[in-house]
Amino acid sequence: MSSASRSRPAAPPACRRAAVALAAALLLGGCQATQTYCIDRGLDASDMLRAQVMAGKGGGAVVEATHFYGLGLLVYSGTAWGLGTRTFGRREEASFTFDALMNIGGSEKVVARGAEPGRKHEFNVSSLFEQGQPVYVTTERGFAPWLVLRAGVMVFLGVDVELRGGEMIDFVAGLAGLDPSHDDGPAAAEPLSASPWRFATLGTVLEPFAQVQRAWPPLAGETGRIVLFGDDYEWTGVQADGNWWPSLALDGAPLVHVNGRDVYFFADAPAGEHVLAVNGEEAARLHVVAGTITFVRMCVSEVAAGDPPPADGASRRLKLEPVSPWLVAPDLDDFRYVGEPPPVRA
Questions:
Q1: What is the mean pLDDT of the chain?
Q2: 54 and 202 part of one domain
Q3: Which band of pLDDT confidence, cut at 50, 70 and 90, is reported for residue 41?
Q4: Residue 110 and residue 71 in one domain
Q5: What's the rounded Cα separation, in Å, for the pair 170 and 191?
């Protein structure tokens, strides 16, 4: 052995301990990353398929090739067993699905008991001709939730199977470390039923009413809030057809609003008495209380024989009806908030 080798100083103990600690940290970090990666890929794989058997009241049959093209009617209420959205097991649910080829389609599932989150989508090609109305609305999370192949049939007993193409793309992309569905990481392990519904539309994002409220500016001083909403499915908010668009005003000042079915918007006003008008005619008197919300339902009625015609000469009239907040607030979860709030009325 050479003298140079014999004279090489040994690494100090502190340096050796630091090197060992660094190697252990890198090894453990790699193991943790690998574990997280495997969990995420497993969850992504489970997202690709939903399959269940059902028993209960109802029946029908439906086939869907995307949410935009399908045919059939399937309505039931009862018990389901099988693979859901990152869940497996038994649940009590009610479901409605109707598809008429490329014209109109929709599905809604409400889960009364079980970990499976409810979901809803609606497609209506006629909305292309309605100002402010989205063609497609869905509560589904993930990448391209409309890209599905589904078949279901039931006569008191039934089966429902759905292949989710968007989640298949997410799984393949996940192998390369990509996440188009944005569902990887710690949040992916949380039950989806604990998360608020997110309504993704073409150009619109809708959220539960309580969540929308949190984003509104706080009421200042002696001011109250007036929330106007339309809840008639056959009525498109403040537009019944392309030729009829009634104007709204609060104390003579026009209210800015966006047309569409199942919409709501609001105006702030000082505490006290106020008048809402439709096409320049008084439609409702309101007593606004500081710090509270006054709900007003917008509904359409046909002009009966012998009734004075509306100022615009239309065959229908837009009615405004103040209602109790206890009867309204929960229902607004399925509605769209449209537009920015108008300024406070002096």
A1: 76
A2: yes
A3: confident
A4: yes
A5: 19
